[in-house]
């Protein structure tokens, strides 16, 4: 991520690099406050504004994706696969990625029928995980 940010002309301050490192090492979806807490463990002086700006930039460039947790809350995860399909628990806000066979055909059919060029998509199902049921 850092090399591509630099190649695209974006500043790589020590604080931004700490945020990038947190996201690169993340194995789960993180809220901005979780990113902030972990980034401050790497580099003191990281501010919430830096976290949000970096998350917005990385999201715009396709390196992380937003996951909507309900109630206006969002989490972010590094993009390891281009398709973002999630199950979001309304109780504990646990997020699970899942494969979605057949979605490519649906997107292509929708594009043909509407004339839209689909650049990206986000599919989320909300409900209760086994632990919260």
Give a summary of the structure in a few sentences.
The chain has 133 residues and is of the alpha+beta class. Helix content is 41%, strand content 20%. A hairpin with a 5-residue loop joins strand 3 and strand 4 (95-97).
Polypeptide structure, described:
- By secondary structure, the protein is of the alpha+beta class.
- It has two domains: 1-79, Winged helix-like DNA-binding domain superfamily/Winged helix DNA-binding domain (Arc Repressor Mutant, subunit A, Orthogonal Bundle); 81-133, 2-Layer Sandwich (Dna Ligase, domain 1).
- The chain is built from five helices and five strands, in the order ααααββββαβ.
- The protein has helices at residues 2-7, 14-25, 32-42, 48-60, 103-114; strands spanning 64-70, 73-78, 85-89, 95-97, 123-127.
- The strands form two sheets. The chain has a three-stranded mixed beta sheet with strand order 4-3-5, with no helix packed on it. It has a two-stranded antiparallel ribbon with strand order 1-2.
- The radius of gyration is 17 Å and the shape is flat.
Shape: flat
Number of helices: 5
Listing every helix as H and every strand as E from the N terminus to the C terminus, the arrangement reads HHHHEEEEHE
Strand content: 15-25%
Which features characterize this protein?
alpha+beta, flat, 133 residues, 5 strands, Dna Ligase, domain 1, three-stranded mixed sheet
Layout of secondary structure:
Layout: H1 2-7, H2 14-25, H3 32-42, H4 48-60, E1 64-70, E2 73-78, E3 85-89, E4 95-97, H5 103-114, E5 123-127
Parallel strand pairs: 3-5
Antiparallel strand pairs: 1-2, 3-4
Helix pairs in contact: 2-3, 2-4, 3-4
């Amino acid at each position: 991520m850092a090399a591509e940010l630099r190649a695209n002309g974006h500043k790589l301050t020590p604080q931004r690099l700490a945020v990038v490192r947190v996201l690169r090492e993340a194995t789960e979806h993180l809220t901005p406050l979780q990113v902030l807490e972990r980034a401050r463990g790497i580099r003191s002086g990281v501010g919430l504004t830096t976290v949000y700006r970096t998350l917005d930039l990385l999201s715009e460039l396709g390196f992380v994706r937003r996951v909507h947790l309900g109630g206006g809350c969002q989490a972010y995860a590094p993009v390891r696969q281009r398709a973002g399909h999630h199950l979001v628990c309304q109780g504990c806000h646990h997020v699970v990625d899942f494969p979605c066979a057949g979605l490519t055909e649906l997107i292509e059919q929708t594009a043909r029928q509407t004339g839209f060029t689909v650049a990206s998509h986000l599919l989320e199902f909300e409900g209760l995980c086994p632990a919260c049921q």
